[in-house]
Design brief:
The chain is 44% helix and 12% strand. The protein is of the alpha/beta class. The longest helix has 21 residues.
């Protein structure tokens, strides 16, 4: 935790230009040679737009890309294969950003931070086409230079051309041998460059995972793979069989672990499915489904009538919990601090067959009385290091010090959750991060009365969560559970179950 993150591209704001920094106008060609206007390639222009939004506005690609693709599809010449290529260029470039930065750095004569960010985006897109796809090198260079002419001007396009031609000298493996230190000399830096993660993230994941080199390499590689789209059939409202039929036998697979899950193995548009449009089903990673199911399955002593989701936004777990609660005649209160996220929870729960209520409230200063609930879930805000497959740009934005900001909130939410549950009731503490500072350390501190805001030890005990994830292998020694992308095919969700004792 003492090491500083490896952040080769930050800040990505305009500083100095690559090349001579002066876009050429109509007279930019050789004397006497007719000037040819650059041709816009809609696929690469779209990918470039997304990368700029990620850099300039701290946007997330999974939010920016879909509307741009929908707009592009309005042009009949924009085919499905174009959408697939644009998606690959965006996510492939973001996932391998650290590796490509190291390669580009080896091909220029100035510090990387002195290259104008839009130039660096074009170079990264070109590097991915050269090193991460099957696009022929001459086509990758030509298309990238043409993009540079459109968005940067002819002058800087010459710089892009020169750098990309240097990159063609080696394939990805050849470049990694040149830019990554040997594993024996610096294991963490080697893994950071080879698998494109900041060094501090490699260190944190390795600490959480334990074990030797093979496990951490499998995990880092899994973070760089495109995740399947997973659907959830909300109980009592839809069935996996309905979703399998709607997606199609050739494109759909049952979930690995959740009985409500269906995997869209061939991709596709979930919003095109009737059950998803109607809210009877949704998009939800199996790890999130398992967390909600485990909380619902853990035994409580006495009544089982009132459930609470204390951090309900954007509503995926609340919708599954609401459906499970309805099967038992239980009431669900879904609470979310941010009003706009509370509205998303309302949308997710609309049509739930059982009683529920959605409120906008701060879980660290709750409006409900202590001991009001039989089951409580708190899926706390966190670094998101468990979902790097879905949001690859997050790995480059987070800093070790971010965890210090989350720590008081995570402990406060867990303490209030334990206060909200009655004696004999169960609390589920969940987070989409495997970082020990956000998982076991938080639970241990709250149980022992440590940390800011703690007034006394909490009267609660950890219960073994593993039996309530029936059939899921490699869950460790317990009593808490850590899921992993490379072992379970899910996001790296963490769950601890605690029973209030006094």
């Amino acid at each position: 935790m003492s090491e500083q993150p490896r952040q080769p591209r930050q800040p990505r704001r305009r500083t100095a230009a690559g090349g001579n920094g002066k876009p050429s106008g109509p007279q930019g060609g050789k004397q006497g040679k007719p000037y040819r206007r650059p041709q816009k390639d809609p696929v690469r222009m779209l990918a470039f737009e997304v990368l700029r939004a990620v850099d300039e506005r701290d946007a997330y690609a999974n939010l920016v890309l879909p509307p741009l693709l929908r707009k592009a599809r309005q042009d009949e010449s924009f085919q499905a294969r174009d959408a697939a290529l644009a998606t690959e260029l965006v996510y492939g470039t973001l996932r391998r950003q650290g590796t490509y930065d190291a390669v580009i750095k080896a091909c220029i004569d100035r510090p990387l931070r002195e290259v104008d960010p839009p130039v660096l985006d074009v170079l990264s897109l070109g590097a991915h086409q050269l090193l991460g796809t099957r696009i022929p090198p001459h086509a990758a260079v030509s298309a990238s230079v043409e993009l540079a002419r459109v968005v940067l001007g002819d002058g800087r396009a010459k710089f892009v051309n020169a750098v990309l031609r240097k990159i063609t000298a080696h394939d990805l493996e050849g470049w990694l041998e040149r830019v990554a230190p040997p594993y024996e000399d610096d294991a963490e830096e080697h893994l950071a460059v080879y698998h494109s993660h900041p060094r501090w993230v490699v260190s944190a994941l390795w600490d959480a995972l334990g074990g030797g080199r093979a496990g951490i390499e499998d995990l880092l590689e899994a973070d760089n793979e495109r995740p399947e789209v997973t659907l959830v059939a909300r109980p009592g409202r839809s069935t996996p069989e309905e979703l399998l039929e709607a997606v199609g036998e050739e494109s759909a697979l049952p979930g690995r672990w959740s009985p409500y899950a269906v995997r869209m193995a061939e991709g596709g548009e979930p919003g095109a499915l009737e059950a998803v449009r109607e809210g009877r089903a949704g998009v939800q990673d199996e790890g999130s489904q398992l967390v909600a199911m485990a909380l619902a399955a853990a035994p409580v002593e006495g009544r089982d009538e009132r459930w609470l989701d204390g951090c309900a936004g954007p509503g995926g777990k609340a919708a599954l919990l609401g459906a499970l609660a309805a099967q038992r005649g239980a009431f669900l209160l879904a609470s979310e601090k941010q009003p706009h996220r509370a509205r998303l929870v309302e949308k997710a729960l609309a049509g739930n067959p059982g009683p529920y209520q959605v409120i906008a409230a701060d879980g660290t200063r709750p409006p409900w009385l202590p001991g009001s609930f039989d089951r409580v879930l708190v899926d706390v805000p966190c670094s998101g290091l468990g979902a790097l497959r879905r949001r690859p740009e997050a790995r480059w934005r987070r800093r070790p010090e971010d965890l210090e900001g989350f720590a008081p909130l995570q402990r406060g939410l867990l303490r209030e959750a334990l206060a909200a549950v009655r004696v004999g009731g169960v609390v589920g503490y969940a987070t989409c991060s495997p970082h020990l500072a956000e998982t076991r350390v938080v639970v241990d501190d709250v149980l022992k009365g440590r940390g800011a805001g703690a007034s006394a030890r909490v009267s609660a005990e950890l219960i073994d969560a593993r039996p309530y994830m029936s059939g899921v292998p490699a869950l460790g020694d317990g009593p808490d559970v850590q899921l992993w992308p490379h072992l379970h095919g899910t996001d790296a969700m963490y769950l601890a179950l605690l029973r209030r004792t006094a």
